[in-house]
Structures are given as C-alpha cells and as structure tokens.
Amino acid sequence: MGLDMYLEARKYVSNYNFEVERNGENAQYHSIIQAVNAGDFITDDVPAVEVKVNVMYWRKSNQIHNWFVQTLAGGKDECQPIYVERENLETLLELCKQVASQPASANKALPTSAGFFFGSTEYDEWYMQDIKRTIKGLEHILKTVPRDWSFNYQASW
Asked: How many domains does the chain have?
C-alpha cells in the first residue's frame, strides 16, 4: 500500500464530424471503436466515446499530491478525480523548476504532506528526485499532448 498518483489525459470523440457535410461519420470515432474491439457492443447510435490515457504516474510524491489537493480540490482529499487544466500543469512545472533551482524554497513552494502510507516528509534527495522527474514528465506532456485533450489527477492509497 502507498500513495499512488495518476495524471490522465482525456479526449471526447463524437460519432459525428460536423466538418463533413456529405458524410457525417467521424473516422476517428470508428477507428477507436475498432481498435478497442468494441464493435460488437457499441452501436452506430452511440453518440461518442472518451479516450483516457495515463500520462504520468508518481508513487509517494506527497508534495505533488498536496499541490493538486490544495490548489485544485480546495483541500478535499478523498481519492476523487480532480480536473486539471493545462495552465495548472504549467504552474506546477514552474514551481518544480523553482524548487529544483532553489531547494531552500521547497517548504513554501511545494510543501510535503503527511498521510497514511504517504512516504517521507523530508526535503531530501528522494524529494528532489520526484521534483526532477515531475519536471521531465510535465515538459513532455505539455509538448506532446494536443490542446483539445483535458486532464484529470487521481490518487489512491
């Protein structure tokens, strides 16, 4: 057991392509249905599908978890999904970069959080490894995930 944390990218894909006047079907929708082998139980009158992809995973990075909970969930920490805007990820990235370049700012910029199986609350090498890994992951996500995708964060313990 422990604090497992997931950032997922999501995309809503409609069965109808409003840009195609003669043929209203969306090829992307049908390729998704085919790729996940759902053709037998999804009929043509289903209006849309949602694609969800885990794009980042942390384990016991309680400082990152604390930031999501305090910043985006009003302090409510019940393993609920938390909607995350791209701008939120950009803010978190900048905070991580600040901590990486000025480690003395860690306890104010990204404070740790104690919890059942949340890991260490020390500002040590493990803390900094999580910060560096988060920087690398968020830079990649922000560069590669298209703007029409949304994000959710969720933790479990």
From this structure: 1
